[in-house]
Structure formats: C-alpha cells, structure tokens
Design brief:
By secondary structure, this protein is of the alpha/beta class. It is globular and about 75 Å long. Strand 17 and strand 18 form a beta hairpin. Helices cover about 30% and strands about 20% of the residues. A six-stranded mixed beta sheet has the order 20-19-11-12-13-21, sandwiched between helices. Strands 2-1-5-3-4 form a five-stranded mixed beta sheet, with no helix packed on it. Strands 8-7-6-9-10 form a five-stranded mixed beta sheet, sandwiched between helices.
Length: about 525
C-alpha cells in the first residue's frame, strides 16, 4: 500500500492510503485535513499544498485560475486537483483546524442494490433542493448530503455520538434517561451533533444549508427514542422488547431551525421495527435487497446493539443481540472505535510477529474490532490463545508493536469479543431454529456496519463470528443503514421495499428463548460456528 508523507508546520506524519480519491478527499478521512469550501472543485483555492517528490503533471485549469504564477513556480498546487498513485511527500501549507467530523474512508458507506429511482418529489418552493440522510448509532453518527433531483452526493460526515459520556451501551443511557433533565440533555446532544455534522459538511463542500428540504434519520430503537425524548423508559421493560415503539417526534420545527435547514423542511425519523430492532436494520435490508435476493439469506449489522435478520424466502426472522463494546470501543487497554489511529488490520509475518495497519493516522492509538478479530484469530492459530480464550502461558496481556508504539491485547478485550460473538452466534442459532434451517443452507450472508467494512472473512469464520460457509457467499457491505436512508430520501419504491420488510418480519426476544443460554455458552469458544 502506498504512503503519504505529510509535512505540517515542521512535523512529519506518514499514513497509508488506497489510490483513487483526490489528495483532498484522502486527507479528509484523516486527522490532517486541508481547508476547503467548494466540494473539491478547485473553485475556492483554499486547499494549497506543495508536493515535494512526485511527478503529478501540469497544473489544471482550476489551478491556473486560483494560484498566481509566482506561487505555481514555488510548487504550490491544490490538493483537490491531485490524485496520488504512489508514495508521495507533500507539505500542507494551510491545514484546516481540528474537527470532530471527517469523511468516512472509501467503501464505508454501502451501495443500494438495485440503485434507487428518484421518484419521490421534494417539498415545493426550494430551488435545487438537498436531502440529508442520518444513521444515528450508539457509538457513531454518519451523515450524507445528496441532491434530491439527481442523487449526486455532496458530502459525507462521520463522528462520535456525543451521548457516549453517559455510557457506552444503550441500557446505561436508558437508565440515565430516567432523570428527565438527563433525558433532555441526551436528546439535545444527539440533535446538536446532527446539526454540527451538517454545518461541517456545508462549510467544506460549499453548499447552503437553506437548500436542505428533507432529512431522514434511521437508527436503533434506543437512539431514536432518546433523540425524540419519547417512550425510552419503555425499553427497560421486557414486555416492550418485541412491541412497536412510537419514536415519532412531536415537533421538528425547532430541530430544522437549529440546523439551519429550509423552513418547512421535512424531518422524518423512520420508525423502528420493535423495542430493540431499529429502522437501521430495515434500511440495511432495503439497501442490500435481502428480500429480493437468493434465499435463505442472513443479515448481521454488527455494532454495540447488533441486529440480525434471517430471510427464508417467505418469512423474515429478526432479533437483536448485545454486541457490547467489543466491536467499537473495547473494555481493555487497547480497544477503540474504527477511527483515525485504530489498527484495523493485523497480519502475521514469517516469524509469527503481528503487523498492524493503522486507519487514517501515522500513530497507532489502539485496536478496533476488525483488528481485534485478526489478532485473536492469529494468536489462536499459533496456540497463544486457547479454545476458551485464555492465554496458554497464563499471562493476562499480549504486547505487540505497531509503528514503534507498543500496544497490549488485554484478556478483557478477548473476553468482550467472546461475549459479543457468543450473543450473535446464539441469536443466529435461535433464528435458524425458528426457521428450521441449518447454516450450510445459507446462500447469502451480509455483514454490515462500520466494523463489518474492515472484517477479514477467514479470520471471522475461524473464531466463529461469521458462519462457516464458502467465502463467495459472504458480503462485507459497510454502512447499509446509511445507504438505505439515502435511498429513502429520494425513492418511493424504496419505501415500498421497507414496508414489505416490516410486514414480513417476526421479532424474536432472545431472553424468552429456552435454548438461548445453551447456545450462548456454545458460541463462546474460539472455533468455527455450528448450528
């Protein structure tokens, strides 16, 4: 993988990258953004850099217009006009200030299959209207801005859900929301985060937020209930875990005003399916076209609240399992979400030493879920970890070096991964039991979510996180929830597919399944999944 060496105010940073996007867009996925205000068209002239050791061709017309001859003679170029293909050293002349928001890495946002039609008329009276799709997750918020008439994407933003300081999991936040003042604070934090992401996208991509005519929000049920500050306390009562919950906001006019979108803009919170199966799952089913594809098919949206669907060709069985912090911010010494500084890929060299690849930064800060799966699978192959997830020599941590920094895999991170995969594996087993299916019968398995984007399929199968089926039957789909929300912005036919999934669904409460505990214990072992 080629590397970018960045010189920033006397400091040197080296990051890996995948060729394709412009230098501006590559940097937007990292901590080292350049200034920009024109969607990378070269119209603002702000993203000035000085390449030092790579042949990048003659200046483009935009650069000839925006950069005066003396600056061009000094090597100044626009980052949005450069498409790196190999190792490159570049000086950032005017870096952007730090931001809580960045562009997701390429491939994170899944595509809709088939592509949606643009047959949903936008609200009247707004010239060149835009739409915003939001996936409100427990750990992260992801947002996309599109032209409603053409579907053209104008911006993507990705950042942490600020509610995290109230607790990493949904139950902790729901308990905290028992205090009305805290509930109002949680709702306000989520709304402000959406507004901040919209503002960041507008500033960098050069569009007017007053053109935003429609906002569609999907998420897990707890996040939607906390956002709307409605009925969230019902989620702490088992009787409501498989019941439909009304998360519809009573009034979104204040939201629209605070976000600076068009007066009268449509703000839609897509209703969840049940107490712990949200509209993020429904959007993912639509984006992946699960109910129109080969059956039987399995869909798993990995996250703090992992949601699972099994389509038999006639019935849709759905449930939710507690993924906990393992996939997005582990409880040990090195766990973190899949964001800048996370080790997201681990391979072992000929001497058996782990080699890590860091996401969007030159300094490893921790290990995210996909890197954790790689490391645990590799250590299991070497016999360092036992079948029950303990270090064979009795140690409590395994140190390893990435880019000169020592990290340590803690036994608590291994334990959290086992509990997460145990719950998901048990959920899959219960749904297969309800449907009368076995794993070898699966013709398609879709692994969705931020975690799923970076997952190594063979490693995931080895430790029992994914079904042990041929690799060509497994798809890494990225953020299908956001992709589905984007389609809902513009397509009536997508809405018909969502209603079809909602009508076909049978919600299963794992807590009421007599065989769940046995299945959970069975799937704790670090071995291939069996049902």
């Amino acid at each position: 993988m080629p590397q970018l060496t960045l010189l920033i105010r006397g400091e040197r940073h080296v990051i890996d990258y995948e060729p394709g996007p412009s230098l501006r867009d590559l940097l937007d996925t990292t901590d080292f953004r350049v200034r920009s205000a024109c969607h990378g068209l070269g119209a603002c002239g702000l993203c000035r850099v000085r390449p030092l050791d790579a042949a990048i061709g003659a200046p483009t017309p935009a650069e000839l217009l925006q950069i005066d001859p003396s600056a061009r003679a000094a090597g100044v170029r626009l980052a949005c006009q450069i498409h790196p293909i190999g190792d490159m050293t570049v000086e950032l002349l005017d870096p952007a200030p730090p931001s809580d928001w960045r562009t997701p890495p390429p491939g994170l946002v899944g595509a809709v299959s088939p592509a949606p039609s643009f047959d949903r008329p936008p609200p009247p009276g707004i010239a060149h209207p835009l739409g915003v799709a939001v996936d409100l997750g427990t750990s992260h918020l992801t947002l996309a801005v599109h032209e409603l008439a053409t579907g053209r994407r104008l911006g993507l933003r990705f950042g942490r859900n600020p509610q995290g300081h109230h607790g990493a999991d949904v139950v902790t936040r729901l308990v905290a929301a028992g205090n009305p003042a805290t509930a109002r604070q949680l709702a306000g934090e989520a709304r402000m985060a959406i507004g901040a992401a919209i503002a960041d996208a507008a500033q960098r991509e050069g569009f007017d937020t007053a053109r935003i005519a429609r906002v569609v929000i999907v998420g897990n049920t707890a996040m939607l209930a906390l956002l709307a500050n409605r009925h969230h306390q019902l989620l702490l009562q088992p009787a409501f875990w498989t019941a439909q919950l009304d998360c519809t906001p009573t009034d979104t006019a204040d939201w629209a005003r605070d976000w600076g979108v068009a007066p009268g803009a449509e703000v839609e919170v897509v209703p969840p399916l049940s107490g712990f199966v949200g509209s993020d799952l429904l959007a993912g089913l639509v984006a992946s076209d699960l109910l129109a594809g080969p059956a039987p098919a399995l869909f798993v949206d990995f996250g703090t609240n992992s949601e699972i669907a099994l389509w038999t060709g006639a019935e849709l069985w759905v449930t939710a399992a507690a993924g906990g912090p393992a996939f997005e911010a582990g409880p040990g010494r090195c766990g973190m979400p899949a964001e800048s500084g996370a080790v997201y890929r681990v391979v072992f060299d000929a001497a058996g030493r782990p080699l890590g690849t860091v996401l969007g930064n030159d300094e490893a800060r921790g290990l995210c879920g996909s890197g954790l799966v790689d490391l645990v699978a590799g250590l299991r192959r070497q016999g360092v970890l036992t079948l029950i997830g303990r270090f064979a020599d009795g140690r409590t941590a395994y140190p390893f070096v990435v880019g000169g920094r020592t990290l340590a895999l803690d036994w608590r991170d291994v334990d959290a991964l086992q509990r997460a995969k145990g719950a998901i594996g048990a959920g899959i087993a219960v749904l297969c039991g309800q449907a009368g299916l076995s794993l070898p019968a699966l013709r398609r398995t879709v692994a969705a979510g931020l975690f799923g984007r970076y997952l190594d399929v063979d490693n995931a199968k080895q430790i029992g996180l994914l079904p042990d089926v041929p690799g060509e039957r497994i798809e890494l789909a990225g953020n299908t929830a956001l992709a589905g929300a984007v389609a809902l912005l513009m397509s009536e036919s997508t809405r018909a597919a969502l209603l079809h999934a909602r009508a076909a669904a049978h919600c299963v409460n794992l807590a009421k399944q007599a065989d769940f505990d046995t299945a959970f214990l069975e799937h704790l072992y670090l071995r291939p999944m069996s049902v």
